[in-house]
Design brief:
Blueprint lengths: L4 H23 L2 H26 L9 H12 L7 H16 L6 H22 L17 H14 L3 H17 L29 H7 L11 H10 L4 H10 L3 E3 L5 E3 L3 H4 L4 H25 L9 E4 L6 E3 L8 E4 L6 E9 L6 E9 L2 E8 L10 E2 L3
Antiparallel strand pairs: 1-2, 3-6, 3-9, 4-5, 6-7, 7-8
Length: 388
Amino acid sequence: MNLSNSVVKRLMLARFFLNLATEHARSHREVSSFAAINQLQDAVETFLFAAAEHLNVKLERRTEFNQYLDKIDEKIAPQNLPFRVPLIRLNKARVASKHDAIKPDDNEIASFLVVVREFFDESARIIFSVEFSSINLLAQIDDGAARDLLSEAESAFHNHEYTECLILCRKAFYLTFESEYDVSQFKDDNVGTLAGFGCRAPYFAQSKDYIEKYVKDPFDFIVLDHSKVESNLTRDGIDTVCFWNVWRLTPDVYRQKDGSWLVKREFKKLQNDELEQNASYVLEHTIDMVLRQQQKRKAALWVRGTGPFAVPLRRPGVSVYEKADRASAVVGVIPPEIDQVEVTCSVPGLNGDGEYWQIGHIQVGLWLYGYIHNDDVDLDRELRREET
């Protein structure tokens, strides 16, 4: 798909207006009929502006609707835009509703919805050489597991494999938003108090007691903190309604420590009459949310260094304290086979008993975070940057 970002965004906006019109048409309220007909016309005009941009057609702000169609037809000759007559009728119905307060007929709105959907499908093939449903911002997502999953989901959708599309979208959603709420690491007795560092699940769920009482299957290991989720979504500019819709429409998934996936076969989500519509909605909005999350993270500024830094230890079995204070709780003991640890900074002790090193040491099967006293560091060996 060789489309500019601005064209893609216009086409996605056209689809958004179409979805809004569909929702209003379903409500069968009088005011919703007016909204539906106006949003349908907005959808068509937005699509035509995207087509004009793609074809280098100049459209003036006061161009009549019929002229939009004429100018684009000139560019795509000998082909023509489909559904010209019903689209002109739609424009007239919109003018009547907007300027003369004439209520559109509900049956006519239903007919226009079908026309606009088919117009988008056929015109997208003629003008952009793509399926309208496939137009999204997937190409802007950075390479990685989430993008690979969404690319597979897109292929599944085009192959009419809507169940598989929903599952793949949820996997990408899981990696982006849910994986940090996994409490499975607390199921063992030997987990230290620092095991929860980086886990966003509610504190009450970060315990073996909680897991024994409430975790009935692997999917219960994901414990969302709804208030924290809502706050983070708002901060990152992600629509909370779309987020929870995707969460509700897709089946639960869980990624095990070995990288394999488990899928909860929820029949009401995977076997219903709206699979295609749900898959289309989920695919579009999951791509948008993952992209927004990535863009937000890339926009954050961080101090860049050549680290990590490491300090050599004076002896095996050094204690790691919760605070910069040897009177505080011991939250871990460095295994005797480790003779140096990664550190982030040095700080004065809370009670004036010397310097402490804050450590953040991560390796396979081991996560240490806390403070070690300067007496446990071999300062005769040079502080160095560990090679990565």
